[in-house]
Design brief:
It is a single chain. It contains eleven helices and twelve strands. It is α/β, with parallel strands linked by helices. The protein folds into two domains: 191 residues, inorganic pyrophosphatase (n-terminal core) (Alpha-Beta Complex); 121 residues, Roll (Diaminopimelate Epimerase, Chain A, domain 1), CATH 3.10.310. The strands form two sheets. Strands 3-2-1-4-5-6 form a six-stranded parallel beta sheet. Helix 2 runs antiparallel to helix 4. It is globular. Bound molecules: guanosine-5'-monophosphate and manganese (II) ion.
Length: 322
């Protein structure tokens, strides 16, 4: 059942019993920010809450209080009365085969979202699940939004908007950010924790990945590749490749940037970024994934050359349509 913000607020207020909060695998800032924000907020509302993810919180987000409470599991066995799933448009994205909960609620902002829970609120136009969560929280009990709630929410908005630079940023996003700063958030504290704690290994990995830079579709598509062995060579973690796609995207004349990541033998995680002419959510959807107009992704099993052939053909068609 599709809910409005007000209906979601009323539903959350009335939730009883054991509540599980989860998000997508390989969680990013918006995923961790929204789930953690709700965790702190629901505790303040007096609910019994647990945070379980498929994958651990990445290093760049581990400064957020409460991340130490996140449990990571391959499978969720215990029974919950409710599950709240944030920033997820497809049940596969949670990384869990099934979640044992009597009732379920999704809070999300992906255009490719298709309902898969009892209740859902999806606002594709909003910057982030964190911004949407903030609006709902304000409708419940605004005074419960303290720094523990505001910090992860601000962080998720910052990361999902590319530090308030992407096209999903508008005046409303800045208004919400301003309100969060008024709660006591220090922007440089967040910035320095997110972006000034890199390990040298990240740069070794970047060096290897940038060497793979190549072009397709008359140089309108720029792509980079991370082969599994690069992680070993650089002694780096997959999460340390976060942000690398901004390099091919930053090239003049490039319309679409693609990042092929081999995290398991023969399994490719593909990230797509557009400068506006191509709706990459549509492209990702054709490959079983999803996302937003300007940022999307999917997973693929098979040979890289085959994947490239299919993807570049698809992108060529999309670019011709403009
Ligand atoms: P990223 O490239 O940073 O992993 O993801 C960019 C956007 O695409 C995010 O909004 C993310 O939710 C979405 N996305 C990435 N990978 C997948 C995927 O495998 N399936 C779906 N449905 N969405 C994805
Ligand atoms: Mn998001």
């Amino acid at each position: 059942m599709k809910l409005t913000r007000q209906e979601t607020a009323e539903l959350v207020k009335a939730i009883k019993g054991k509540v599980l909060i989860t998000t997508h695998k390989n969680p990013d800032g918006d995923a961790v920010g929204s789930s953690l924000g709700w965790f702190h907020y629901l505790k303040k509302l007096g609910k019994e809450v647990k945070l379980i993810y498929k994958d651990p919180v990445p290093h760049f987000l581990n400064f957020l209080p409460g991340t130490e409470k996140v449990e990571t599991r391959e499978k969720i066995e215990e029974e919950f009365d409710w599950v709240i799933i944030t920033d997820v448009s497809d049940p596969k994205r949670t990384g869990f085969e099934g979640i044992p909960a009597k009732k379920s609620l999704v809070i999300d902002h992906h255009i490719t979202a298709e309902p898969f829970t009892d209740y859902y609120i999806v606002e594709p136009e909003i910057s982030s699940t964190c911004e949407l969560s903030y609006h709902i929280m304000k409708l419940i009990e605004p005074e419960l939004i303290d720094t523990f709630v505001a910090l992860p929410i601000y962080t998720g908005i910052l990361t999902d908007t590319g530090s308030f630079n992407y096209s999903n940023t508008n005046s409303q996003t800045h208004k919400v950010a301003a309100e969060l700063l008024e709660k006591g958030i220090d922007p440089y504290f967040v910035y320095s924790n997110l972006f000034e704690r890199n390990r040298l290994n990240k740069f070794k990995l970047l060096e290897l990945v940038l060497k793979t830079l190549d072009f397709a579709v008359k140089n309108k598509v720029a792509h980079i590749t991370l082969f599994k062995e690069f992680l070993e060579e650089a002694q780096a973690l997959p999460e340390e490749a976060e942000g690398f796609i901004n390099y091919p995207r930053s090239i003049e004349g490039v319309e679409v940037a693609v990042f092929f990541k081999e995290f398991e033998e023969g399994t490719w995680k593909v990230s797509l970024r557009s400068k506006g002419k191509v709706n990459v959510a549509k492209v990702a959807k054709a490959f079983g994934g999803g996302g937003h107009k300007m940022a999307a992704g999917f997973e693929w099993k098979g040979e890289l050359f085959h994947l490239k052939q299919l993807l570049f053909e698809n992108l060529e068609t999309e670019l011709k349509g403009n």
